[in-house]
Amino acid sequence: MVKVIIGILVAAVIVIGGIIFLNSGVVQNDPAVVESENTISYTIEGEVSKQGTYMLDESITMNKLIEAAGGLTENADERCFFNDAELKSGTTYYIAGRYNADDICSNSEISKVNVNSDTADELMAVNGISSSVATSIVSYRTENGAFRTIEDLLKVYGIGNATYRKIRGYVILHA
């Protein structure tokens, strides 16, 4: 009986050791993140084929990040980004959808506002953009020029992470 118990314990140790070894190899060989010299990590979410973090050249554009992520999905709203926008490391970039992905039966586009051209009153049509935030958006773009990425909204006084996440799917940068 003792030999059976020892046999079971040895088998369990071998199985657990094998699982730990295999899992550590999977994490190290993750194709989404490959480190090398002179590269910086960029993260992309939303309507791209492969969301994730990518190690790319120091100075890249939105187009290069989208290519690294396998391209856009059919639902991607190309009005929500500029292909030639230069990206900053350490920022998570979001590609919004044209249609509500949660409602597969809907064929009507999500109603959006243009943060680079709409008035403060028009911006307030989005739930999460109050009159003070709308005024701040207009003031920011007047002083600093057009928004180049949706993430630039985080530079606007009154827009923190929570507000940004609430409104990012309802704004566009160009027609």
Explain how this protein is built:
The strands form 2 sheets. This protein has a 3-stranded mixed beta sheet, covered by helices on one side. It has helices spanning 2-28, 62-68, 120-123, 131-144, 161-167, and strands at residues 39-46, 52-57, 92-95, 113-114, 171-172. Residues 21-34 have low confidence and may be disordered. Helices cover 34% and strands 13% of the residues. The chain has 5 helices and 5 strands, in the order αββαββαααβ. It starts with a helix and ends with a strand. It has 3 domains: 1-27; 39-95; 113-172, Orthogonal Bundle (DNA polymerase, domain 1). β1 (39-46) and β2 form a beta hairpin. By secondary structure, it is α/β, with parallel strands linked by helices.
Concise synopsis of the structure shown:
34% of the residues lie in helices and 13% in strands. The protein is of the alpha/beta class and 175 residues long.
Please name the defining characteristics of this protein:
two-stranded parallel sheet, 3-stranded mixed beta sheet, 3 domains, alpha/beta, 175 residues, 5 strands
Which superfamily, in CATH terms, is the homologous superfamily of the largest domain? Photosystem II 12 kDa extrinsic protein
CATH class of the largest domain: Mainly Alpha
Rg to the nearest angstrom? 23 Å
CATH architecture of the largest domain: Orthogonal Bundle
Order of helices and strands: HEEHEEHHHE
Largest β-sheet summary: 3 strands, mixed
In percent, how much strand structure appears in the residues?
5-15%
Instruction: Tell how many strands the DSSP assignment holds.
Output: 5
pLDDT < 50 runs, ≥5 residues: 21-34
